[in-house]
Specification:
Elements: E1 8-10, H1 20-23, E2 29-31, H2 39-46, H3 48-56, E3 63-69, E4 76-77, E5 89-94, H4 95-104, E6 113-120, H5 121-124, E7 142-148, E8 151-156, E9 161-168, E10 171-176, H6 214-219, E11 222-226, E12 231-234, E13 239-244, E14 249-256, H7 266-276, H8 282-297, H9 320-334
Parallel strand pairs: 1-2, 4-8
Antiparallel strand pairs: 2-12, 3-5, 3-6, 6-7, 7-14, 8-13, 9-12, 9-14, 10-11, 10-13
Helix pairs in contact: 2-3
């Protein structure tokens, strides 16, 4: 693939202060050298053995889920041939066992895939963040560990904002803005390798006969090349394909939402709309589209301005009390 647009770089960010310039960005940003001074990055630069010794200081024996695949999948964590299952097997194992496998595969020209993704750092490595962390003054991010050999994770989106920090190895991230959804040929919403829907296009060898609109997606793609100590900010809903390029790759990422904690997940709304709206007669679907436009997506009109303020109910700004009331109503209706 030929992608000429590179992700914009910043080199003045610090781990102890993630600036509003980053957090409010609507496009991806490379944060070059953001975590270069983390002790874990320094250990990784010494050798894989030093990195693993450092991790073992914090590991308390909590099992992790490893994705194990045969050499012929060439790192691509994906579906099997007929999409009836996946091309890897999940295994619950000790992190120590994963580290030993990764060491054993270091000099193998065509190793099996061994990949641990989205593992809670606080649960798996208690105390790790006391020495290696980003500081968010008003957010409590979810912090996850990703470690393995060469891997390719299909393009997908995340609802939270994301800062992904490279600890070891090199990462290549290919990003697409949210409006390219229709050109990415997304697979099933409820059956995916890691739970989140993914693009079915093979980024290494895209089949433009099968996926012709992907050419348009590539016109809007951005590319980031990251080394140890670098990080990337990925805004909510941006599609991203992530590759671990070396025989050992480790990443720590931070997910957070700028919206209040009492707000629900927008994905719940999509699922409910699939259940309740998508298969209605065409005229009714159009009526509901108009309703959503009017109450949710319209930016230049106030749907409640003609109602006395004290009587606007859920049409006034949602607070924690209104959120609890709405959630209770939804639960009662769904459980009928």
């Amino acid at each position: 693939m030929n992608i000429s647009s590179l992700v914009k770089e910043l080199d003045d960010c610090k781990p102890d202060h993630i600036s509003e310039r980053v957090r409010q960005s609507e496009t991806p940003l490379i944060l070059r050298g953001l975590v270069s001074d983390w002790p874990i990055v320094q250990a990784a630069r010494q050798s894989p053995a030093e990195l693993f010794d450092y991790l073992r200081r914090f590991y308390q024996g909590v099992p992790v889920t490893a994705s194990i695949g045969p050499p012929e999948i060439q790192g691509r964590i994906f579906y099997n041939e007929d999409m009836s299952g996946f091309n890897f097997q999940p295994e619950r194992v000790q992190l120590d066992a994963v580290l030993e496998k990764l060491l054993a595969y270091q000099n193998d020209a065509s190793p099996p895939v061994c990949y641990v993704g989205s593992t809670s750092v606080d649960h798996c490595l208690p105390g790790f963040r006391a020495e290696n962390d980003l500081i968010f003054e008003d957010s409590q991010p979810m912090v996850r560990l990703w470690i393995g050999n060469q891997s390719r994770i299909a393009a997908h989106y995340d609802i939270p904002d994301n800062i992904a920090c490279v600890v070891a190895g090199r990462r290549r991230v290919t990003l697409f803005p949210p409006e390219q959804l229709q050109n990415l040929y997304v697979g099933p919403l409820d059956f995916a390798p890691a739970g989140q829907a993914i693009s079915l296009v093979d980024m290494h060898k895209p089949d433009f006969d099968q996926y012709p609109r992907f050419r348009e997606a590539l016109k809007h793609a951005q590319l980031a090349e990251l080394g140890p100590g670098d990080a990337i900010f990925i805004p909510s809903m941006w599609w991203h394909h992530v590759e671990g390029l070396e025989s050992l790759n480790m990443l720590v990422n931070y997910w957070w939402r700028e919206s209040p904690a009492f707000m629900g997940s927008p994905l719940d709304v999509l699922n409910h709309a699939l259940l309740s709206i998508r298969d209605l007669p065409d005229a009714q679907r159009k009526a509901w589209r108009n309703l959503f436009d009017y109450y949710i997506f319209q930016e230049d009109a106030d749907a409640a301005s003609h109602i006395p303020e004290a009587s606007r109910g859920v049409l006034s700004p949602i607070d924690e009390t209104k959120a609890r009331k709405l959630r209770a109503q939804l639960l009662n209706q769904l459980n009928r």
